[in-house]
Design a protein that fits this description.
Helices cover 49% and strands 7% of the residues. By secondary structure, it is α/β, with parallel strands linked by helices. The chain folds into 2 domains: 343 residues, Rossmann fold (3-Layer(aba) Sandwich), CATH 3.40.50; 58 residues, no CATH class. The strands form 3 sheets. Strands 2-3-1-4-5 form a 5-stranded parallel sheet, sandwiched between helices. It has a 3-stranded antiparallel sheet with strand order 6-8-7, with no helix packed on it. The chain is elongated and about 120 Å long. The N and C termini lie far apart (65 Å).
Length: 526
């Protein structure tokens, strides 16, 4: 029996059966109405739960509505430095302020510091036994807890899990991964019923919707209703799937062992699976069934309009020719499937439509890079506009300076004229003093203006001559590699920034010039 064929527990069967039994007895609920779309969304992307499909949906929504997606810094790859607990410094500054946050992270309340106050928080869970089999297969060559299991046997691991389990796993937790991603204690004893109860309640408070992977379409109905989105906003194609050859056959009894080993995840799943069906029942079974039917019909139309007769072919990542469509492969032992487009796909679609269709099946790493490149280009354009504004400011300053010089000349002529008319000596002296004072004030103002102008010009020339095109980058003290460039940090709660010189700076004429340029931005203690 494949783990994907695993039948949910009795409680899940009751909630789902009750829902379908009432399908013909309850009337359909009305549509959400004309409320404005909610565009500020945090999606906690959990592992091996179908979250890559949901992330692609959110990426496309962001692009379609011109929203900003918070993306990780390059040091974190396409994750927010997982499995470390989330920090705001993990986000690329060029992607802030953000509307959407959806990459892998370990959740905590620091997320709320940078996302808008009206953001909607959602996540997704998967049946723990099914999820654990998927994780074991996917991460067994990278996860320390799985590496030393004889023959890579899931049954061997579950027979003596404590023999192989590493509590401080540096790559991926091998136990209660859902609890860990949600910010909980993955090793909390099963006997601590109070903690389990409180943690489930905390997740319920933090997230407006907890989707269930086994009922993805039904979850999207709730999502669309919650966010007031259109049907086109929730269309998707399944991504990041394993080939059947990479799925393990589960021996009898292993399912119960996997659920027992991941007992916290099991509690979470059972609670929120029941909660999902309660919310669906509140909408009305007929309404939900109709929404699911419309969703699947719209997806078929989308695929047909995008690809026509040349539908994308589901293939192993190794066989996909287009690098933009090759999904991430964790190891040679796991076969991840992706989509390959036929060479002759050119049936009259515009380049813009072809790009949108391509992103429908684009894997998460490539899509993440596309969005990061777009935000980087936007940031460069903003800097260019700032430079143009500075140049205009300089032009205005020069114009004012010229006007002041003209005033000086007029005052000089007036003084000469008064002298020529031979006014009374007293009046003449008074006028001279008045003119002298005015001239002095004008001269002082001119000198101050020239000093400010020269200071700006000298600063720009100094930075340009020192660093050229490779300007020092302002970074947190923790990210600065050169120790003598790190400013003093009084404590961990205060983030002091300094300058980081790019590694490719190689235009200094001598070591002496190099030292002078470094001292220009060197902190006071160093």
């Amino acid at each position: 029996m494949l783990v994907e064929d695993f039948m949910p527990e009795v409680m899940e069967e009751r909630t789902m059966d009750a829902f379908h039994l009432s399908l013909f007895s309850q009337s359909s609920q009305p549509s959400p109405g004309l409320k404005p779309k909610q565009t500020n969304v945090v999606f906690l992307k959990t592992h091996k739960t179908g979250s890559s499909t949901m992330q692609n949906l959110l990426f496309r929504f962001a692009e379609r509505h011109n929203l900003t997606v918070a993306l990780p810094i390059k040091e974190c790859d396409h994750l927010f430095c997982y499995p470390r607990s989330f920090k705001t410094s993990f986000i690329h500054p060029g992607t802030l302020p953000a509307n959407i946050l959806t990459n892998h992270m370990r959740f905590n309340q620091k997320v709320r510091r940078l996302m808008p106050n009206n953001s909607t928080y959602i996540t997704i869970l998967r049946e723990p036994a099914s999820m654990f089999e998927s994780m074991f297969t996917y991460f067994k060559d990278n996860c320390e807890s799985f590496k030393n299991v004889p023959n890579g046997s899931l049954e061997a691991f579950l027979t003596k899990p404590w023999r192989y389990y590493e509590r401080n796993e540096p790559y991926m937790p091998a136990r209660n991964a859902l609890t860990f991603d949600l910010g909980g204690d993955k090793d909390r004893p099963e006997t601590d019923a109070a903690y389990i109860r409180d943690f489930v309640a905390e997740v319920d408070r933090n997230f407006s919707l907890v989707m269930i992977a086994e009922y993805f379409d039904e979850s999207l109905v709730l999502l669309r209703h919650l966010l007031s989105w259109d049907l086109d906003d929730v269309l998707y194609v399944k991504l990041n799937m394993r080939a059947n050859s990479s799925k393990l056959s589960i021996a009898p009894g292993l399912t119960a062992k996997m659920r027992a080993w991941n007992y916290l995840d099991t509690k979470l799943y059972d609670h929120f699976n029941a909660s999902l069906w309660q919310k669906l029942a509140a909408l009305g079974p007929a309404y939900v069934a109709n929404e699911v039917r419309l969703l699947r019909q719209a997806q078929e139309r989308l695929m047909q309009s995008c690809f026509g007769e040349w539908m994308p072919q589901l293939r192993s990542a190794k066989l996909i020719k287009n690098k933009e469509l090759q999904p991430y492969q964790p190891s040679d032992k796991v076969d991840i499937m992706g989509y390959d487009l036929p060479d002759n796909i050119s049936h009259g679609l515009s380049s813009q439509v072809q790009e949108l269709c391509l992103k429908l099946i684009m894997p998460e790493v490539q899509y993440n890079n596309v969005l990061l490149d777009r935000e980087t280009q936007r940031l460069m354009q903003e800097k260019l506009m700032q430079r143009l504004m500075q140049e205009r400011l300089m032009q205005r300053l020069m114009q004012r300076l010229m006007q002041k010089r003209l005033m000086q000349r007029l005052m000089q002529r007036l003084m000469q004229r008064l002298m020529q008319e031979r006014l009374q000596p007293l009046l003449q002296r008074l006028m001279q003093r008045l003119i002298q004072r005015l001239m002095l004030r004008l001269r002082l103002m001119q000198e101050k203006l020239m000093q400010r102008l020269m200071q700006r010009l000298m600063q720009e020339r100094l930075m340009q001559s020192s660093f050229g095109d490779c300007m020092p980058q302002i970074r947190s003290v923790k990210q600065i590699k050169i120790k003598k460039m790190r400013p003093f940090q009084p404590n961990e709660s205060v983030d002091i920034v300094g300058y980081e010189i790019p590694a490719n700076v190689s235009h200094w004429s001598s070591s002496q010039v190099h030292e002078l340029c470094l001292k220009l931005i060197m902190p006071e203690m160093q």
